[in-house]
Amino acid sequence: MFFAALFLIIARFLSVWSGTPFPVALVTSDSMEPSLMEGDIVAWTPERIEDLKVGDVVVFKSYVRWPDEKIVVHRIYDIETSNKGNILLTTKGDKNDWTDQKGPHIPEPYIREDHLMGKAISIGQQPIKIPFVGMFGIWINEGFSLISQPTASKNTINYVGVFAPLTISAVILVLLVFILPEKAKTIKEKIRLNIFGRKPLNLKKTLITFLIAYILFFTMIHAFAYDTMTASVGINDRCPDSGLEFGRIRGDRDSFSKNFPVINPGAMPVKGIVFAKGEMEDIVTKKIFELDKGDEKTLKLKAVTTNVSKNGSYTGDIMMYSSPFWLMFPDNVIKGLYNWNAEATVYTLDILAAVILTSLTIILLASITFIGDKTTNILIDSSWRRPAKIIIKKNVTKKLYNLKKRVKSSLSKNIGWILNTNILEKKGEEKIINNFKKPVLASLVLIPIIFLVEDQIAAIILSVVIAGITAYFISCKIRKKLLLTGLITISLVVIYMIIKSNIIILEKEASIVELLSLSFGVIGVYTLILTFFMIPLIFMVWIIVRYFRNVKEEKEPLLTLEGRCDL
Questions:
Q1: Domain match, 431 and 555 both
Q2: Which domain does 116 fall in, by range?
Q3: What is the domain-level CATH number for residue 268?
Q4: Per-residue pLDDT for 262 more than 80?
Q5: Which of 109, 126, 199, 525 is most buried, most CB within 10 Å of its CB?
């Protein structure tokens, strides 16, 4: 789960940075009901257009880009071939009466390969989805799209960028939670702890965790989220071409003021600083500004020659950094810092903001813990003083406790062995490699399945089930080898699908960042599938082979004395 989350977060980071697709789509309308509801989240993987068929749910970039670019998740209604041999897709939402290409709306052209992004991961024709989780995402979608502005220079207007703080903070927090060391844990315990949960962090570790998280969060933002514009001035010399030209001036005079417009398209007010780098560092005046959300302001910048003793042409960059957290600091503090070192000011303010936010976070957590403990004590005390007659009369508490105990016991008995089995454990002089021979042999049944079965999820299920049954019939009659067969099979199927998808990605004419974004996203999606399907499928295989074993033991009772079987 950790690696799946890590790959998906990295992919999201790259996709926001470069404006490339992310292989997880949020359904924002009801056009695909009842298959997909508004707020559902679906995953997709790259697919060749020639491998698609009618009924598949595909993800594509809409040709209709007003007011902005749209990603559409619709079903293929028809497939045609043009006179030039190009495959053309007709698409339609399940709820819609009209196809996307016809009807009382702005029609989409036929979907071609250049606009096809991929195919939704489905079981049959039903996309796998996480229902309604995205409703919160829909609510913040407008604000998130605003705070995910690109960082390149915007010609005449410079955008105040807050580079995807939700994405970056998630990356840092996930990394910190899993990377912070634990005392005296075996490799097996560490793996299980990272996948299935960990103990609460103590106060010291919590303080360090949040402080490092906030510092990395802010510094990573400003490592990518800034705006820049070239600037130049000529002191008794020609002024070179640049984005902001202060012109030719005499050595004893300042330039005329130049307009430097900025706009804050973000969802929060911000405070920022503007300064110059390079040869212009000591020439251009520094500025502090504040902007409410959606506001625009024109800053007046000058080239001051008092700090320059030599005539000549000077070039450099105008840098602009901003953050909503800098509003905590008065202008005098910021001025004192940037007069000392303008570039270091950015990171100094980030560290100070991190310290303040860490303190507030610890106070908040401590308050919540204190209130929670007090509330629990009060509830326990009141339950003893005024017991609920109805609950006592119907013995509800005891029944719930017994039910919980039975469920826990059943899960421990039937599934616990999957989590507790050490697949690398060996007996005596037995070589570990011997444990793998028959499971690997059984897992080879996946080869025809992955080529014959087009549906990805069906291929995974069939491969694991058939491989498990095969393992049983070639004398893998202990749980460990059954578990090993399932792990090897599902891992090989997922690796094959990752390789196939990445080959399709490499066939695209795209930038390195886009290729990396899609590649990490695909790996994350398939790793997530592996995580969710692994235990249920192995449990299913165990149930099936145990049934076969029980039937066989009924016919041959002496088999119950066989010590090599623990199914």
A1: yes
A2: 28-133
A3: 2.60.40
A4: yes
A5: 525
